[in-house]
C-alpha cells in the first residue's frame, strides 16, 4: 500500500492584507528594488510611501510565495482619485496634450506596483499577480505607469501589459521630480480569462 503524501506547491498566490504587507514590507521592498535594479537605499525611501498607500480606499495586494514562504513577487494598487499625487500628475500630462481626462481618470484602479524577483521571472508570475489583483476591484478600468523603453526592445513588463490588453493613455510623460520618461497605460476591466 502506498502512503498518501501531499506536498506543498512550490509556488502559490496569496492575498496580502494591510497587516501582512506591513509584516513583510522589508521583503516586499527587496523584491521591488531587485526587480527594478535600484540601489538598496531606495527601499528606505519607499517604505513610508508604501505604508501610506495601505490606507488608501480600495487598497489591495497579492503576492507569490515559494514553498519556504519567501516572497517571489508582489503587486498592489488602490482606487485613484483627485488629490492623489499620481492622479494630479497624470491629469496635468493629459491636459497639456489635449487628452481626455474624465474618461480615464473618472473611475479607475491604480496598479501602483507589480514586481517579480529576477530569478523568478519568465514563469507567468507577473501575469498571475496582475490578474489576481485586478479580479478584486470594482472599478471600470485600470491605469499604471511604467518607464519608457526608449531604443531598447520592450522588456517583460511591457510585454505583459501589451499581452493583457493595455493601451497607451499618455507617452513620454515626465513626473515631477523624475527626469525619466514614463508611459501611462490603461485598459477596461474586467480582464478576460486567459
Could you explain the architecture of this structure?
The protein is an alpha+beta fold. It has a seven-stranded mixed beta sheet with strand order 1-2-3-4-5-7-6. Strand 4, helix 6 (125-135) and strand 5 (141-147) form a beta-alpha-beta unit. It has seven helices and seven strands; from the N terminus they run E-H-H-H-E-E-H-H-E-H-E-H-E-E. It has helices spanning 18-23, 25-36, 41-53, 85-96, 102-105, 125-135, 156-163, and strands at residues 11-16, 60-66, 71-79, 108-116, 141-147, 167-174, 181-188.
What is the H-and-E element order? EHHHEEHHEHEHEE
Lateral arrangement of strands in the main beta sheet: 1-2-3-4-5-7-6
User: How many angstroms does the end-to-end distance come to?
Assistant: 40 Å
Number of beta-strand segments:
7
Radius of gyration: 17 Å
What's the helix count? 7
Question: What about the largest sheet?
Answer: 7 strands, mixed
Low-pLDDT residue intervals, each spanning 5 or more residues: none
- Quick one: overall form? globular
Mean of pLDDT: 93
DSSP strand content: 25-35%
The helix-and-strand class reads alpha+beta
> What's the helical proportion of residues?
25-40%
Amino acid at each position: 500500500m502506498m502512503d498518501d503524501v501531499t506536498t506543498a506547491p512550490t509556488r502559490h498566490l496569496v492575498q496580502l492584507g494591510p497587516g501582512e504587507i506591513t509584516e513583510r514590507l522589508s521583503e516586499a521592498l527587496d523584491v521591488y528594488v531587485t526587480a527594478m535594479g535600484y540601489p538598496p537605499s531606495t527601499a528606505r525611501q519607499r517604505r513610508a510611501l508604501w505604508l501610506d498607500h495601505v490606507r488608501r480606499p480600495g487598497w489591495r495586494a497579492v503576492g507569490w510565495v515559494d514553498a519556504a514562504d519567501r516572497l517571489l513577487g508582489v503587486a498592489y494598487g488602490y482606487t485613484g482619485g483627485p488629490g492623489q499625487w499620481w492622479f494630479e500628475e497624470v491629469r496635468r500630462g493629459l491636459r497639456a496634450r489635449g487628452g481626455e481626462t474624465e474618461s480615464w481618470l473618472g473611475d479607475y484602479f491604480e496598479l501602483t506596483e507589480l514586481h517579480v524577483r529576477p530569478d523568478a521571472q519568465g514563469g507567468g508570475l507577473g501575469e498571475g499577480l496582475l490578474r489576481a489583483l485586478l479580479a478584486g476591484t470594482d472599478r471600470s478600468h485600470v491605469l499604471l505607469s511604467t518607464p519608457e523603453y526608449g531604443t531598447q526592445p520592450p522588456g517583460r513588463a511591457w510585454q505583459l501589459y501589451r499581452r493583457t490588453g493595455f493601451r497607451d493613455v499618455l507617452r513620454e510623460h515626465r513626473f515631477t521630480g523624475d527626469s525619466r520618461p514614463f508611459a501611462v497605460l490603461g485598459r477596461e476591466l474586467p480582464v478576460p480569462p486567459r
